[in-house]
Design a protein that fits this description.
This protein has helices spanning about 20-25, 35-50, 55-60, 65-75, 85-100, and strands spanning about 1-5, 15-20. It is mainly alpha-helical. A two-stranded antiparallel ribbon has the order 1-2. Helix 2 (about 35-50) packs antiparallel against helix 3 (about 55-60) and helix 4 (about 65-75) packs across helix 5. The two termini are about 20 Å apart.
């Protein structure tokens, strides 16, 4: 299995690949249809948690909108480094969003 990561700001035809051996990929305890999206989310969360990438860029790896990704970071108790004002604005947006749609699957 080849796990492809497209980093923000790069030309569409340039990609970076993370190769996952088939036996490791097949051993994942995830439904087959969700494995790739879950790996994208987990990788994005890891990058933010380790302060290797800002949430704005990491959310593109997870293929999530800003509010959904920040909600996911909050659920995982990952600090995203915003100001208190940004946190309040995002919390209000997340509350409004939660009434419109369920939380992300990751």
């Amino acid at each position: 299995m080849i796990f492809i990561v497209r980093l923000p700001g790069q030309v569409d035809h340039i990609m970076h690949c993370l190769q996952i051996p088939d036996d490791a990929f097949n051993a994942l305890k995830l439904p087959a249809g969700r494995a790739e999206q879950e790996l994208h989310c987990e990788f994005a969360i890891f990058l933010v948690k380790e302060a290797l990438l800002e949430p704005t860029q990491a959310r593109t790896i997870a293929n999530m909108d800003r509010v959904a990704f920040q909600t996911l970071l909050a659920q995982r108790r990952v600090a995203w480094g915003g100001s208190p004002e940004e946190a309040l604005t995002d919390m209000q947006a997340a509350q409004a969003s939660a009434t419109r749609r369920p939380f992300p699957a990751c």
